[in-house]
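Predict the 3D structure for this chain.
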Amino acid sequence: MGEPGTQTLQQLSATIIVCQRCPRLRTYCRRVARERKRQFRDWDYWGKPVPGFGDGRARLLVVGLAPAAHGGNRTGRVFTGDSSGDWLYRALHRYGFANQPHSASRRDGLRLRGCYVTAAARCAPPANRPTREELANCRSYLEAELALLPRVAVVVVLGRVAWEAWLRAACWWQNGPKPRFRHGSRTRMPDGTVLICSYHPSRQNTNTGRLTRAMWHRIFARARNALGLVATRR
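Done. Predicted structure below.
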C-alpha cells in the first residue's frame, strides 16, 4: 500500500493526468503523440499531462519548466527521454539522490532518494513557451505538491519560469521577499527553506556553453551541502 503521503501524491498524480484546463496544450500534446517523431515512431506516446516524480519524503525539490514534446510527453515521466533529463538524472545520481544516472522510460527502474522532481507546467507547450494563463492554470498542482512534501528544505529551480512558479506557489511572490534570479544564487527564505537558482539544462543553454557541466554539478553540490546545513540547524 505504501505510506499515506505517497498514496496522496499518487492521487494528485491521477488528477493531473486527466487535466483538461488548457485546450491549446492538450491539442498540441495529442497532435505530437499522434504524429510522433521519426526517431520514436515505434513508441506509444503518453500524450497526457505529466505529474511530478520522486520520493514522498523528499528534502530536495527540483522544479523545471515543462515536459518536452518528445521527452516527458512521450514517456509520461518528467525530465525523461530527452537531453535535459540526461543532465538532471546524471547529476542527481552523482550526488546521491537517484539510484541510477539514466532515465529513459517509466519502467526503467529509476528511483529517487530524498528528492522530488516537478515542473511549472504539466503539458508540453509549443516552442517550450507556456502562456501566463497556462502557468496559472497549473499553479494549484505545484501548491498541492508543496503541501504534500512537508520535509522539503532545499529547492532548486531550473530557469526563470520555474523560479517564478515556485515563488508564487510558495506564496513568496507577494507575501514575502522576492530574491533575484541569478544562476548559482542561494537564498535562505524566512521559513528556513534554501532556494538555489540554476539555468535550465536545455540544449539552448548546454550546447552554447551558457551552462557547462561544471556549473551544473556545482548547483547540486551546493544543494547537498545546504541539506547538511539545514539538518544541523534544525
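Strands lie at 53-54, 60-64, 115-119, 154-158, 186-188, 194-198.
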